[in-house]
Design brief:
The longest helix is centred in the middle third of the chain and has 32 residues, at about 90-125. This protein is of the alpha+beta class. The chain folds into 2 domains: about 40-125; about 135-209, no CATH class. Strands 1-4-8-7 form a 4-stranded antiparallel β-sheet, covered by helices on one side. It has helices at about 40-60, 70-85, 90-125, 140-155, 160-170, and strands spanning about 5, 20-25, 30, 135, 160, 180-185, 190-195, 200, 205-209. It is globular.
């Protein structure tokens, strides 16, 4: 499915429509960038993703998200010292890259999760709870397909996360989207409704899984 989805949500800092405009020496205008992906070494990225593929096949996709930062750092150091000791039994540098990325991602997730816990506590005081953006799909068949897969996921696993929902829409999720979603008890009265510009999947509020 290639869903045509509309949203105004900004997931990554510096890539939204409100990003400031810069002008180069030739008068060319574009959004100011906060990142330098062009400085990443392609060869190193390929070597790292080989290890990611091997890990996913052995342990499952995103299994590393269930491992604490300290464990990732410990394994990273093991590979670092093994490399320094001259060990050739594994691709140690590629594992170091993976473990460093894992540690950073888990740390960011924990920070975001703690922020959302604070938001939940504040919601008791009348402030907004955890919310997700409304996404409008232009094609009714796409909307029906997303709803069908959401329903299948809930029936098969007993719950489905906000991240799973966003993946079906091919929308980038936040770290905390893995911790919120719907269970078989809360995934009720979900339906596709026609709205201006397309179709909306009407979902109940997401709660902590």
């Amino acid at each position: 499915m290639t869903a045509n989805v509309k949203s105004t949500q900004n997931v990554v800092e510096g890539v939204g429509r409100d990003s400031p405009t810069v002008v180069n020496e030739k008068g060319g205008k574009q959004s100011k960038v906060l990142y330098r992906f062009d400085l990443l070494d392609p060869g190193a990225m390929f070597e790292m993703t080989k290890v990611l593929k091997e890990g996913a096949e052995k342990y499952g996709d995103n299994n590393w998200r269930n491992i604490p930062v300290e464990d990732h750092l410990n394994h990273m150091l093991i590979h670092a010292y093994a490399y320094l000791a001259g060990d050739k039994s594994d691709e140690h540098l590629s594992h170091i890259m993976c473990r460093a990325m894992f540690a950073q991602a888990v740390e960011l997730f924990d920070k975001d999760k703690n922020r959302c816990v604070d938001d939940e506590e504040n919601s008791v005081k009348g402030q907004s709870p955890y919310e997700i953006e409304d996404y409008i799909l232009q094609d009714r068949d796409d909307a029906d397909e997303v709803l069908e897969k959401l329903t299948e996921g809930v029936n098969k696993y007993g719950s489905i996360s906000v991240a799973d929902y966003l993946d079906l829409l091919m929308v980038t999720s936040k770290f905390t989207d893995y911790s919120y979603g719907w269970t078989s008890d809360t995934f009720v009265n979900v339906r596709v409704v026609p709205v201006r510009g397309g179709y909306l999947i009407k979902l109940p509020p997401a709660s902590s899984l």
